[in-house]
Write a structure and sequence with these properties.
Length: 109
């Protein structure tokens, strides 16, 4: 799958200065990890955001945000965000802030 360099740049800028953050290629795209835990990812088919199990309902009620599916399996607590949604700077920041809050609650790897 092709990477989305524009989305990667947006996320790198949004997450700049976050302590404990690392990046690496995963799932055919680019992923950001916080203290070793997956936080979000950028792929050609959208932004992947980890909100936490049972904490994604608010996001799934918004247009252009759907559950993340890997193969035939739904990844509970993860959402896929289309360009129409992640292009909204305020919404993208809200999603990232929610992801950061959830992933900060996890033990470091």
């Amino acid at each position: 799958m092709a990477r989305d360099k524009g989305l990667e740049t947006l996320l790198s800028e949004d997450l700049q200065g976050e302590q404990g953050l690392s990046e690496k290629g995963m799932f055919g795209g680019w992923a950001w990890l916080l203290h070793g835990n997956l936080l979000c990812g950028a792929r050609a088919d959208g932004l992947l955001v980890r909100l936490g199990r049972d904490q994604d309902g608010w996001a799934l009620r918004l247009p252009d945000i759907v559950p993340m599916i890997m193969g035939s399996r739904r990844m509970h607590g993860w959402v896929r965000v289309a360009p129409e949604a992640y292009g909204d700077d305020t919404l993208r920041r809200k999603l990232l802030d929610a992801a950061l809050a959830f992933v900060r609650s996890l033990p470091a790897k």
